[in-house]
Each structure stands twice: as C-alpha cells, then as structure tokens.
Amino acid sequence: SGGQRQRLGIARALYRNCEVLILDEATSALDETTEAEIMRRIVCHAELTVVVATHRYSTLAFCDQVYRMRDGSISLVEP
After folding, report:
1. Which string of DSSP letters, residue by residue, matches 39-73?
2. Secondary-structure percent of the chain, ordered helix, strand, coil, rounded to 5
3. What pTM does this model have?
4. What is the CA radius of gyration of the chain?
5. Three-class secondary structure of residue 74 per DSSP
6. Per-residue pLDDT tens listing for the chain (79 residues)
7. DSSP 8-state code for residue 24
8. How far apart, in Å, are the Cα atoms of 56 and each of 23, 40, 50?
9. How many CB atoms sit inside 10 A of residue 54's CB?
10. Inter-axis angle of helices 2-15 and 32-43, to 10 degrees?
C-alpha cells in the first residue's frame, strides 16, 4: 500500500544517516497515529535537519520553524 511504501522510504533515508532529510508529503498515506510515531522518531535525531513539505497541520506540530508558501512568496509562520 501507499503507507507501506512511505514508511519504507523514510526508513531507508534514516538508515543512511544523512545530515539533511527532505520529506515531500511523506506521510500523506498514513493515519494520524502512525504519522505521529514516525515524526517523533525522526525528530529525535538531533543532528538531522528535516525539511518537510506538507498540507497536514498535524505534521507541523513536530517542526521548530514553519514557513508558508503562497502566491510565489515564502513567509515565516509565527507560533
């Protein structure tokens, strides 16, 4: 299924111990509980920089900084 492919792709990326991980709608096929568990595991890697592109507000809860792209401009979203 799509969720299984997404989990496998994330696992492969984390296994490589990269410094920067870019996720583009990487949890879109997952339920909210599974998404939250995966995001918790990703953010526990203190040395890892993660760039997330998402439409899900629940994913943003795990982010230190949030930027919104709208009409060709990018702006910081204040907490």
Report:
1. HHHHHT-TT-EEEEE-S-HHHHTT-S-EEEEETTE
2. 40, 25, 35
3. 0.74
4. 13
5. strand
6. 777 888 888 888 888 888 898 888 888 888 889 888 888 888 887 788 989 898 888 888 888 899 999 999 999 998 7
7. E
8. 13, 15, 16
9. 17
10. 10
